[in-house]
Amino acid sequence: MRNYKTSFQRKFIVIKNTKLNYYVSPLLSRFQFIHAFFTKNSQEFSLELLTNALNLKNLNYSLNQIHSNNLILGSKLHPNVKSKADGIVSDQPCQSLWVYTADCLPILFADKRTRRVAAIHCGRLGLEKKIIKRTISFFQELGSMRKELLVAVGPSISKINYLLDINYIKRFYKNISLNESDQLIDNPYKDYNYISDLPKKKTLLPLDLRENAFKQLSCERILSENIEISEQCTYELSDEFHSWRRARTKKRQWSFICS
Q: pLDDT tens-digit profile of 203-236?
């Protein structure tokens, strides 16, 4: 398997005399898609300030995220009403699509040919509900070809720091395996499914959100060379990122992409 994890490029902007770091995907940058995975201080500023600091005149679109697989077209969003969904797909030029995350995956999609983009918030429940699959189907219905899609996954929690009760692990693999080939979905805990007397020390097991996102993208025939995933862990990098698992905070950081 190709090593899809990489170091994203660090940049910064200055807002009101405050330096704000952000990261960009080398893959998306190569194809000249304007985007950013911001660090923790981004929550202190409005989307308008963030956009202006990047010299953009785009319309900003964001959501009331609910760990669903709901997707909305940018033009269907009202600036003063937060729609309940976890993904935005562009349908006009000059749209900035924003999602906020802490330990979950901020995933940005871009079509090299049509220049259509999408931003989704995807955690364990998003993977279970197949928001990645829905996003790719959405693109396809709008005329995109899978081979033209680029996908960048920003900073998120690493496997070693994301521990779940065995019952959540079982439920996760049961849900994502529905209607999927066993050869495509690799469940590292499949031997535990029929074990009722697991040692207490093993009741918490790690789950790799990044690896499962990569596998779901591969299942949807997204080319491995068109997938890039940040190796930065939001749990470990406390100076840069908020993490619910580390601090039980409701604070998040912003990520966006422009059409």
A: 788 999 999 999 999 989 999 999 999 999 999 9
DSSP label at residue 8: P
Q: Alpha-carbon distance 93 to 250, whole Å?
A: 32
Whose CA is closest to 61, among 83, 36, 32? 83
Model-level pTM?
0.92
CB atoms near residue 118 (< 10 Å): 27
The first and second tokens of residue 144, run together, are 């995109």
C-beta of residue 102 within 8 angstroms of C-beta of residue 242 = yes
Structure tokens at 97: 């699509």
Tokens 């997938």 -> residue: 227
Greatest Cα pair distance in the chain: 59
Nearest partner of 107 among 226, 250, 238, 249, judged by Cα: 226
What residue type is 191 in one-letter code?
Answer: D
